[in-house]
Amino acid sequence: MDARLLPTLLVLALTASNSAIAQIPDTVWLDELTWTEVRAKIDGGTTTVIVATAGTEQNGPHMVLGKHKFIVASAAERIGRRLGNALVAPLVTYVPEGNLNPPSGHMRYAGAITLPNEHFMKLLEFAARSLAVHGFTDIVFIGDSGGNQRGMEEVSTLLNVEWATKAARVHFISDYYSNNGFRQWLELQGETADSIGRHAGISDTSQLLAIAPQHIRLDKLARQGGFEGSGVSGDPTRASAEYGHKGLALKVEAAVKQITALIAAR
User: pTM of this prediction?
Assistant: First the structure.
């Protein structure tokens, strides 16, 4: 190689390297971006942000306490990418899970962490206020567990009344959790209300099998958890990754549809 070409080649290599480093990463996660990258995205029209909440709670002997976190992380990322102009804020994993003294709800099981509803609501309120300050105009609340639905709805109502004359709005997406059609679809596959259950049964177990099977203890799968007081309602032995992929798709579709409609109706 002609030695005279080396300086030119070095400059080209450094330019290509710097260009790759300077490129904003392909992510929808707010905390994977720098503040200048977030500002650039907002200025470029990315003005929707998803605040996803997930409980830290017992899920029977066969499934980890972070089940909701793994499920909602996967769903929120898909929703953000589907919307095309959205980021996803860091997950909220401390939500109402029962009382401390005496322990009630999921707090009767080792490892659960609870946050009283009024404190949960304050956390959401100030997360939303923070995001609105930076220029996000559509703040979306999505929750993957039952105990946090009421708090999200109440905060969205509170802030929307206060912000009636401002640009920002908060949207509580109830359809993601309560109206996604997954239970009905499972029944069409021949499952019964008893086998589907209400907690840590076919639905939850299938979704985690689809996205993070390493967090399922296959040797602990048993109908109703295998013993009284297991924390399981339903028959997780009938769960499958195929069911889980369908359930996640339905939840994402329901959320995207409701978010789109709420933003369009502003």
Answer: 0.90
Cα separation of 157 and 175, whole Å?
Answer: 17
Listed by start position, the domains of the chain span: 27-264
* Residue 107 DSSP symbol: G
Tokens 């840590």 found at: 200
Topology of domain 27-264, CATH:
Rossmann fold (3.40.50)
Long-range contacts of 222-225 (CB under 8 A, 24+ apart): 222/61, 222/62, 224/197, 225/60, 225/61, 225/62, 225/200
For residue range 76-124, what is the model confidence (pLDDT) as tens digits? 999 999 999 999 999 999 999 999 999 999 999 999 999 999 999 999 9
* Cα→Cα distances 53→24, 43, 62, Å: 26, 26, 22
Rounded CA-CA distance 225/258 in Å is 35
Question: How far apart are the C-alpha atoms of 206 and 244, rounded to whole Å?
Answer: 4
Residue type, 193: A
